[in-house]
UniProtKB/TrEMBL annotation:
Alphabetized InterPro entries for the sequence: DNA-bd_dom_put_sf (IPR009061), MerR-type_HTH_dom (IPR000551), MerR_fam (IPR047057)
Keyword Membrane in annotation: no
GO molecular function: DNA binding; DNA-binding transcription factor activity
Protein's name according to its UniProt entry: MerR family transcriptional regulator
SUPFAM superfamilies: Putative DNA-binding domain
């Protein structure tokens, strides 16, 4: 990678991020520019790598924007969790999402192969799952 600098509009286009988002990241201290040429923010290789990291962490839904800040900002705030805490919590969240997706996949695969003519309305397994969801939902009223 060269030491070339890229304008905010070039970075916006190349990374698929609105200019307003890049400005917001700068305001938050997540992605300060490497400098300016007149009023135009410029970004160098280090800033582009940092943006790529932000995209991998936040845009892919791995961690919140606040947690992204906790991971990559040089001076962590006292009220932020540590980077390792963020990573551990994110892993647990992802594990939960994976379990949910596996359950959804199982249900869809069952409905696809269900011998009933109309599995959405007549599938016994689906009806049991829906009855449980209704019971769980109404159970929250008792709290």
């Amino acid at each position: 990678m060269t030491d070339e600098r890229y304008s905010i509009s070039q970075v916006s286009r190349c990374f698929g991020v609105p200019i307003s988002t890049l400005r917001y990241y700068d305001e938050l201290g997540l992605l300060p520019s490497a400098g300016r040429k007149g009023n135009v923010r410029l970004y160098g290789p280090a800033e582009l790598r940092r943006l790529a990291l932000i995209q991998r962490l936040h845009h892919r839904g791995l961690v919140s924007l606040a947690d992204t800040a906790a991971l990559i900002c040089e001076a962590p705030a006292d009220d932020r969790p540590t980077g390792r805490d963020v990573l551990g919590a994110s892993i647990e969240t992802i594990k939960g999402r994976i379990e949910d997706l596996r359950a959804a996949q199982h249900l869809l695969e069952h409905m696809l192969t269900c011998p009933r003519a109309d599995p959405v309305r007549d599938c016994t397994e689906l009806r049991v799952e829906l009855d449980q969801a209704v019971e769980d939902g109404l159970g929250a009223l008792d709290v």
